[in-house]
């Protein structure tokens, strides 16, 4: 136990790099655990930000079931599925970045984060093409809605929710890419290691949440 | 003080675990896509949401390491999910049980089979 403690905290009870042990924590282990708890609370509140839109979706879908089903079919299912596969794979590479930093393989870890950022760009580009197509078809919220054969009442509500949900999610993708770039910089500069991997883990957790939200958006928007 | 080092009682996750979870997620995505392509009916969304819940559980447990996490950290996201579920359940049961004239007007349109 003493040996493990020395391995975790370094000989002087502190990490080789990263934050020092704050006086109100018994061990570095507890300090890191508390930091992670803070991140989990943040992720919980992030999911509650989306909760309002998910709640709105459930109510309006209950009121306009057939219009929602028709609108869903107007979306490009192939592009949506492609984006799902991209985000899932980027989550996988972020998880691998954590694995590699755990084994002190800095180059592999940085490369995995780089791949994830690239996939984030890919996701946004595909989303951009989808939105452009939606604009041209008239699959828009409110008075701009003019799709053939779909009632304005449910249709414009579906596309209001569609643009709010995908737009808020795209904003999270952009923030997540920024966090990943910050973590990649730390990995390249060797400010993180198997002893202290919090930046990689925290930005990874955020990216996984972005993936989690998309996992639910995909059926709600494309598979009704 | 004696329990300070029990955090690393579990070994760090193996490489193969990440690959397995990734493959499972890809398979589930392809399954839900093919199902939607073949047939869409009243239960499509329910089936798709069940698959999505399975995928979310896999991501949460193994990519976000909730499986290896300990203490209070494990239940924070779960509580957010529980309260989201509760809110949706109450919202929908309210709308479903309302006296018809109390609902906003909506137009029912036939959905073509495909």
Entry summary:
By secondary structure, chain A is an all-alpha fold. Helix content of chain A is 78%, strand content 0%.
CATH architecture designation of chain A: Up-down Bundle
**Structural Rg of chain B:** 21 Å
Helix/strand order of chain B, N-terminal first: HHH
CATH-defined fold name of chain A = Four Helix Bundle (Hemerythrin (Met), subunit A)
Count of beta strands of chain A: 0
Percent in helix of chain B? 55-70%
Helices of chain B, by number, come to: 3
Describe this structure in words.
- The complex is a heterodimer of chains A (224) and B (114).
- Chain A has a single domain, classed as Up-down Bundle (Four Helix Bundle (Hemerythrin (Met), subunit A)).
- With 224 residues, chain A is mainly α.
- Chain A contains seven helices and no strands.
- The longest helix of chain A has 37 residues, at 152-188.
- In chain A, helix 2 (28-63) runs antiparallel to helix 6, helix 3 crosses helix 6 (152-188) and helix 5 runs antiparallel to helix 6.
- Chain A starts with a helix and ends with a helix.
- Chain B has 114 residues and is mainly α.
- Helix content of chain B is 57%, strand content 0%.
- The longest helix of chain B is centred in the first third of the chain and has 24 residues, at 15-38.
- The chains are: A mainly alpha (224), B mainly alpha (114).
- The interface between A and B is large, with 63 and 60 residues.
Task: Present the secondary structure layout.
The complex is a heterodimer of chains A (224) and B (114).
Chain A: H1 2-9, H2 28-63, H3 65-74, H4 77-102, H5 106-137, H6 152-188, H7 198-222
Chain B: H1 15-38, H2 44-63, H3 76-96
Features:
heterodimer; A: 224 residues; mainly alpha; Four Helix Bundle (Hemerythrin (Met), subunit A); elongated; B: 114 residues; 2 domains; flat; disordered N terminus
